Amino acid sequence: MPKTASICLFLPLTMHFLPKYLLLCGTFVGLLYSLCCLPIVHAHDEIDHLLYEINQRLNAQPLNANLYYQRGQLHQQHGHFNAAFSDFQQSQILQAQQGIKSSMPQLSLAQLCYEQELYYLALLFIDEWLLVQAPFSPQLAGLRLKTQIHTAL
């Protein structure tokens, strides 16, 4: 008997047992899916929801530097480099215009550029952060990032 004929004879038998096999394995497959994939889906859904809320707040408060910074962090978590970079820069500009003393946008920009392998740009931002941050608080996070950047170069 040719191979195609034996496959054709086997196919109806397979189609009969396959749904029962999948039904038996379904709980295991469903469990694996829920353990592995659903947290990722829910994390993105949560980030999307938070982005929506921050966008609504930014419509009401377009000069709020902190909201741009928060939205930049969410974009960074979501993997949207350009949007995160833009929001961190906007936060930095608004803080400078409003006389707010915060160096968090520089640190976030440095981290973001490091993650994108833009090491020289990351080095500029981390050096700026270290200059501003030095008198006020421990710089361990910034120094660690600067070491990682130099190692990557």
Model description:
The chain is built from seven helices and no strands. Helix 2 runs antiparallel to helix 3 and helix 4 (81-98) packs antiparallel against helix 5 (104-115). The protein is 84% helix and 0% strand.
Compile the SSE list and pairings.
Elements: H1 3-36, H2 38-60, H3 65-78, H4 81-98, H5 104-115, H6 119-133, H7 140-152
Short recap of the structure:
The chain is mainly α and 153 residues long.
Number of strands: 0
Range of helix content = over 70%
As a whole number of angstroms, the C-alpha radius of gyration is 26 Å
Give the termini separation: 65 Å
Mean pLDDT over the full residue set:
75
Report the sheet with the most strands, covering strand number, pairing sense and barrel closure. Answer: none
Instruction: Count the DSSP helices.
Output: 7
| Helix and strand element order | HHHHHHH
Oligomer: single chain
Bin the strand percentage: under 5%
Overall shape: it is globular
Key features of this structure:
single chain, 153 residues, mainly alpha, 0% strand, disordered N terminus
